[in-house]
Amino acid sequence: MAAVLRFLIAVLLFSSIATASLSQEEEEFSEELLLKPLADRKVLAHFHFESKAPPTRTYGHHHRLFPKALYQLVQKFRIREMELSFTQGRWNYERWGGFDPISSSNAKPPGVELWAVFDVPHDLVDASWKNLTHTLSGLFCASINFLESSTAYSAPDWGFQPFSGSLRYGSLPREAVCTENLTPWLKLLPCRDKAGLATLMDRPSIYRGFYHSQRLRLSSTEFGSTEVESGIALDQTLTVVLQPTTSHRASMTYSSDSVLQPSWSLSSIFGRKVSGRCVLANSSNVYVQVERGLMSELKILHAEDEGSGADNLTFEKTWNNPGFELSIAPNRVIKEVNILHDETSIVLYEYLIDNYSNSEPFDLGFTWKFPVVWSSPQAPLHASRFLMGSGNERGAIAISLKATEPSDGLWFADTIENSCMLRFNVFQVVPWYVRVYFHTLQVFVDGKPQSVTDFIERMRISPSEDKVSPGVMEMALKLPCCVKSVTLTLEFDKV
Ligand SMILES: *[C@@H]1O[C@H](CO)[C@@H](O)[C@H](O)[C@H]1NC(C)=O
Ligand SMILES: *[C@@H]1O[C@H](CO)[C@@H](O)[C@H](O)[C@H]1NC(C)=O
Ligand SMILES: *[C@@H]1O[C@H](CO)[C@@H](O)[C@H](O)[C@H]1NC(C)=O
Ligand SMILES: *[C@@H]1O[C@H](CO)[C@@H](O)[C@H](O)[C@H]1NC(C)=O
């Protein structure tokens, strides 16, 4: 049953800065790939393709870059925002980190997930959703139309995304994700997978991965509901976690008894190289990201290597250091500016793909020279959900939130006792055949029962209806940062 239930937690630590993009005059397409060595010997590859079309009011609808099918979708259903994702495997928060604003801050659960915000009167939102799921299943994959059924989707008010009334959310957690889902998604790119970074998407390599999540996100200002008219933006991302094959060198043991991480290159993980950018792309870049934890380990290595007088700034600018070596010199090194972590920062090595070609393809290699052990930054809370009581018919659902090690120190920034507060939302959808007794809600803080109102700032419950609609619970919690664990329990019967 746990797989049927959906649970999402939005940690509202970084208040997302609204990007008030200026009204643009031209269409634009950019492609980028971020590669990141993970602490558990795997590699993260995060592809991001962005297409932007200027507002119809000023530009018309003759698009060269923006996919026509999606432009029509936005117009027909008056979509303000929409996200569709296909995910296979579970994101491993502990090993791969839970706090990387660049690639993994919003890891998706397995299966198909769709949400959309419509710019239509509230009484038309359900009809628009149904028609949209119908059209999407023609565009992408036949199963999306299962989300048409009122038992399969819900109408969160604010707990999921801050839109009131006009948002619908549905998921198919058991849906198997396969190559058939990728093909229509690639067709939306101006060069498809025939040129540019998408040529790396070799199906067997990607589907062999430990996790992959393919997403499509649309946002538009076409219907005058926002002050800034920026047109339509389409973001397509594909996140994959791959295991580079271990070469014989990696089995060598070092004095510290640790094992060298497997080295990799684009051709070794994807079986392909990049023979130039997509000619229609306004920019085409590849980034290698070195996490803060790895950077600080490398810094220690470097200091041991060069003596204590080592120049730290120069060190971070090098792509050939005591820990690893990149086969190509980057065009630029970008260092995170973070006042809370002035000692070590995330470093990005940037490569421009402009000048590569068939005769000189881009095949970046990452070679480890010394075994390095590090850990990824963790999200402030680890969330889990389980059932209590005997049998499946009657029992209780528990949602448990545990503070992770304060590795990032962010929420301890404020040292004055009790003034540091952690705010987050819990959004829980329950299938109609599980009757949850919401009045039985109990809150345990650090194991002790507490008054619900002391920690819950806001709550909205919409009970399930037999064979009609699922139950939805939205909750805004506010906790002092010193709290170690919070458990919410609710009793239920299974119909
Ligand atoms: C992006 O490139 C396309 C095709 O080459 C071009 O038509 C368009 O003007 C460019 N857009 C911007 C914002 O530079
Ligand atoms: C949904 O589709 C039906 C049948 O094609 C149509 O009659 C109706 O107007 C559509 N509603 C919306 C809100 O798009
Ligand atoms: C550079 O590294 C040395 C040795 O690790 C350290 O003592 C010093 O504070 C660092 N300097 C800066 C500016 O980070
Ligand atoms: C690409 O080649 C052009 C022409 O030779 C040159 O001006 C430009 O700087 C090169 N770009 C990069 C990123 O190397």
UniProtKB/TrEMBL annotation:
Which example biological process does GO assign this protein?
A: attachment of GPI anchor to protein
Give the keywords, sorted. Answer: Signal
The signal peptide here is 1-23
UniProt GO cellular component terms: GPI-anchor transamidase complex
Lineage top rank: taxon? Eukaryota
Protein name listed in UniProt: GPI transamidase component PIG-T
- Cite the source lineage: Eukaryota, Viridiplantae, Streptophyta, Embryophyta, Tracheophyta
